[in-house]
């Protein structure tokens, strides 16, 4: 674990979609899929990103939205960036025998490390990823190399037409799974949660909130009484049921609680 | 008969002497209630200010090497005192006393925030006159005897019977004098200490200070000896009770600052090391120590290190 930010060289940058690039950093870090690191650009800002690959190098996929990520997109191979972490609780495979992995939009990055881990543990699974269009689907190899992948696009330009939740509903109607592990836009996660509840299937969802410390001390990331950076970002069904603010509210930098729509509009800046 | 770790601070009864420090967790009522369930005897809100403020950009907080603590320049973010109705409502259900921490850029701002917050009937009002991380707020007051007197008496005038507790800065040249000035101005208790600083950490590869604000306040184990000394000096100069904090992480730390003169103990950075369970841990270790050493109350332990 890195406490104070350390500088790491960017060994490789892979463009994934018009708005997503994967950065490989020369920093050995071990962790669990779902955990995140704080990335620091001196003089700009520091923000949390899920790690899609741990080990001798780490990989993070960054979607261009807002000032910080625009600056990240200006970085080149051999440039450096500050890293601390990994932080938070990742996905848990304890007791899981047959899973569905779901990634929506840039949330795909947060679950991209799961297929490898599930395969290594001999856990059966199927993956579903979704995006608005064909160009926005990414990370296919991380899923296909280890198991079956169903891809969905909102406009039908590739794979199944429609939301990932449609594919999820069909699968749960056909077969029994004991855990759904997902990350994506909160509206999607809300639907995944409702679908799982209706089908008496456990889920683990990776949530997102604006963060400051990443350490569980400042509560900037709080949802009800849970700290997304420390108690999460991955929450199980039991915890999700108690989160009254999930799918509804989030906090701005001042700590003010606002509706998700206002929060997302601010996050794009 | 009460438990041996019951405590009392300016007439506010506490089931346990450990109090959540301002700026830790105190963003909403949900998490404050969780701290109470985990053993906090009272909880303090994040400092509440006059107008909505975002605070500084990240990095705002990170951990220093080898268990010394944290450095932070969060920069007093606040929704603004008028913008928190829902939290106030929900805090009414909190099972332990709620201390409202406030700050302002001028005496007038402090007074307006205090008057409004007093209407919400918190158990106490804490005056943050000691934040090192903002140019125009806080520390300006806490390092001057005259300014501390002025803001304390002005706030005291508008909050009725609610106990008032200025929070002091370890940067004061003579903290005992500042404490005395606050007492004379009508303070009911003192809180010591806020973070120590400003300090700076440079990442030598980046060749840049790590905190976006460049400088920040230190908290945690490294500052405990300074906290203990400040509480000691205050205990010798004032009669009002003292909430001691700065690096309190385990039961022995709590015993130490109580022996220096604290009536209750603030807990902040320990939450980083031990989670919200830090309260329960400190409480039970404190109780065990008191039992093993024959102390039947916090009151009997308080200040015994003095001649
Ligand atoms: C991240 C962070 C935020 C803080 N915010 C505030 C604040 O808003 N108001 C305040 O009076 N003190 C604030 N403090 C100071 C703490 O309340 C406390 O006085 C200090 O950290 C020393 O105690 P500790 O060593 O137990 O953390 C903050 C400290 C930290 C580390
Ligand atoms: S970001 Fe500070 S507690 Fe989560």
Mean of residue pLDDT of chain B?
Answer: 94
Main β-sheet of chain A: number of strands, strand sense, barrel status?
7 strands, mixed
The class by helix and strand makeup of chain B works out as alpha/beta
Describe the global form of chain B: globular
Quick structural gist:
The complex is a heterodimer of chains A (about 270) and B (about 300). Chain A is of the alpha/beta class and about 270 residues long.
Helices and strands in order, then pairings?
The complex is a heterodimer of chains A (269) and B (307).
Chain A (H helix, E strand, L loop, with lengths): L1 E16 L2 E6 L10 E6 L3 E6 L7 E6 L3 H7 L6 E8 L10 E7 L3 H4 L2 H7 L3 E8 L8 H5 L3 E6 L6 E2 L2 H11 L4 E5 L2 H13 L4 E4 L15 E2 L2 E2 L6 E3 H5 L7 E3 L5 E3 H8 L2
Parallel strand pairs in A: 7-8, 7-11, 8-9, 9-10, 11-12
Antiparallel strand pairs in A: 1-2, 1-6, 2-5, 3-4, 3-6, 12-15, 13-14, 16-17
Helix pairs in contact in A: 5-6
Chain B lengths: L6 E3 L2 E3 L3 E3 L8 H9 L5 E2 L16 E3 L6 E3 L12 H7 L6 E5 L4 H12 L5 E5 L10 H4 L2 H12 L7 E5 L6 H10 L5 E3 L3 E4 L2 E2 L4 E2 L6 E4 L4 H14 L4 E3 L6 H10 L3 E4 L2 H5 L3 H15 L5 H4 L6
Parallel strand pairs in B: 3-16, 4-7, 7-8, 8-9, 9-10, 10-15, 15-16
Antiparallel strand pairs in B: 1-2, 5-6, 6-14, 11-14, 12-13
Helix pairs in contact in B: 1-2, 3-5, 5-6, 6-7, 7-8, 8-10
FE2/S2 (inorganic) cluster (FES) binds next to loops of chain A.
């Amino acid at each position: 674990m890195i406490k104070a930010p350390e500088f790491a060289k960017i060994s490789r940058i892979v463009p994934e979609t018009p708005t997503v690039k994967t950065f490989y950093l020369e920093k050995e870090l071990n962790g669990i899929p779902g955990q995140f690191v704080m990335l620091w650009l001196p003089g700009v800002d520091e923000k949390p990103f899920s790690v899609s690959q741990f080990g001798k190098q780490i990989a993070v996929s960054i979607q261009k939205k807002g000032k910080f990520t625009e600056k990240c997109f200006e970085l080149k191979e051999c440039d450096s960036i500050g890293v601390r972490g990994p932080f938070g609780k990742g996905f848990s495979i304890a007791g899981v025998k047959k899973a569905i992995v779901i990634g929506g939009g840039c949330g795909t990055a947060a679950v991209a490390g799961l297929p490898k881990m599930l395969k290594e543990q001999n856990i059966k699974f199927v993956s579903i990823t979704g995006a608005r269009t064909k160009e926005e689907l990414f990370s296919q190899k991380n899923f296909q190399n280890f198991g079956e992948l169903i891809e969905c696009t909102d406009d039908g330009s590739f794979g199944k037409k429609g939301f990932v939740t449609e594919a999820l509903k069909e699968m749960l109607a056909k077969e029994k799974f004991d855990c759904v592990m997902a990350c994506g836009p909160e509206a999607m996660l809300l639907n995944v949660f409702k679908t799982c509840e209706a089908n008496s299937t456990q889920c683990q969802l990776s949530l997102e909130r604006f963060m400051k410390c990443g350490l569980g001390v400042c509560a900037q990331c709080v949802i009800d009484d849970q700290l997304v950076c420390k108690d999460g970002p991955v929450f199980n069904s039991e915890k999700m049921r108690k989160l009254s603010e999930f799918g509804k509210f989030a906090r701005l930098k001042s700590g003010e609680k606002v509706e998700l729509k206002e929060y997302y509009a601010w996050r794009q800046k | 008969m009460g438990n041996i770790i019951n405590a009392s601070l300016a007439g506010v009864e506490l089931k346990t002497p450990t109090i959540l420090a301002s700026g830790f967790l105190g963003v909403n009522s949900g998490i404050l209630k969780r701290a109470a369930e985990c053993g906090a005897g009272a909880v303090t809100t994040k400092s509440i200010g006059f107008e909505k403020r975002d605070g500084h950009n990240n990095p705002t907080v990170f951990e220093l090497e080898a268990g010394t603590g944290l450095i932070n320049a969060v920069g007093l973010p606040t929704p603004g005192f008028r913008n928190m109705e829902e939290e106030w409502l929900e805090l009414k259900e909190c099972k332990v006393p709620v201390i409202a921490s406030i700050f302002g850029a001028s005496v007038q701002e402090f007074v307006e925030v205090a008057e409004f917050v007093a209407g919400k009937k918190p158990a106490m009002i804490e005056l943050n006159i000691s934040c090192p991380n903002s140019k125009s707020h806080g520390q300006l007051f806490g390092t001057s005897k005259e300014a501390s007197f002025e803001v304390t008496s002005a706030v005291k005038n508008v909050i009725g019977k609610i106990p008032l507790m200025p929070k002091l800065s370890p940067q004061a040249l003579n903290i005992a004098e500042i404490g005395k000035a606050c007492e004379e101005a009508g303070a009911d208790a003192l809180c010591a200490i806020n973070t120590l600083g400003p300090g700076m950490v440079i990442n030598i590869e980046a060749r840049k200070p790590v905190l976006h604000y460049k400088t920040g306040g230190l908290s945690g184990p490294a500052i405990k000896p300074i906290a203990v000394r400040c509480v000691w000096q205050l205990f010798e100069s004032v009669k009002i009770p003292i909430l001691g904090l700065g690096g309190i992480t385990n039961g022995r730390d709590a015993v130490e600052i109580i022996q220096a003169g604290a009536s209750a103990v603030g807990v902040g950075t320990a939450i980083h090391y031990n989670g919200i369970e830090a309260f329960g841990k400190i409480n039970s270790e404190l109780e065990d120590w008191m039992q093993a050493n024959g102390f039947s109350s916090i009151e009997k332990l308080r200040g015994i290190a003095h001649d």
